[in-house]
Amino acid sequence: MALLGKFFKKDSTVFSPASVLPEIMKALTEEGYHPVRDAEVRVVYEEEEILCCFYYSEEEPDFLLVQATFERGAFDEVDDPSLHRACAQLSHRQKVSKAYIDEEGDVVVAVETFLFAGVSLAPLALHMSRALGVALASFYQILEELLGRKPAEVD
Q1: What is the pLDDT confidence band of residue 1, given thresholds at 50, 70 and 90?
Q2: What is the spatial distance between Cα 72 and Cα 90, in angstroms, rounded to a whole number?
Q3: Domain locations in the chain?
Q4: CATH code, residues 14-146
Q5: What is the pLDDT of residues 63-108, one digit of tens each?
Q6: In what order do the strands lie in the sheet with 36-39?
Q7: Integer Cα distance of 52 and 86 in angstroms
Q8: What is the number of other CB atoms lying within 10 angstroms of the CB of residue 118?
């Protein structure tokens, strides 16, 4: 049980939305993005015309998430089973990302991580943003393969 205690004990980490999200905004701004904090727990920025969001909440102080959500209408030409298969394949192939269909039927692609005391947030956030970009490109490639189309070249 002592071993498990290491994983379940709360330490005195001083992460809070008041410190985490501004640091993420600063890092994104320095990389040329135009982030906006539009909610207490969310920073929004655009990556190649795709709206991406970082989420951080005191309710889950050891957890950071970045995601992109697409309304179901963005994939009108794709049947539901193909979308579900694409999500499952991405989640299997990309170990740090996941894709799923939410309650409203929208497609969500996300990258998440745990925060540990002493972690440098700026490089972590930029790495997560790049990982989300890779996950999005992979999702589209998987979807094209499932639909029997030749995948478009990814830069």
Answers
A1: very low
A2: 17
A3: 14-146
A4: 3.30.1460.10
A5: 999 999 999 999 999 999 999 999 999 999 988 899 999 999 999 9
A6: 36-39, 42-47, 50-55, 63-70, 107-114, 97-101
A7: 20
A8: 6
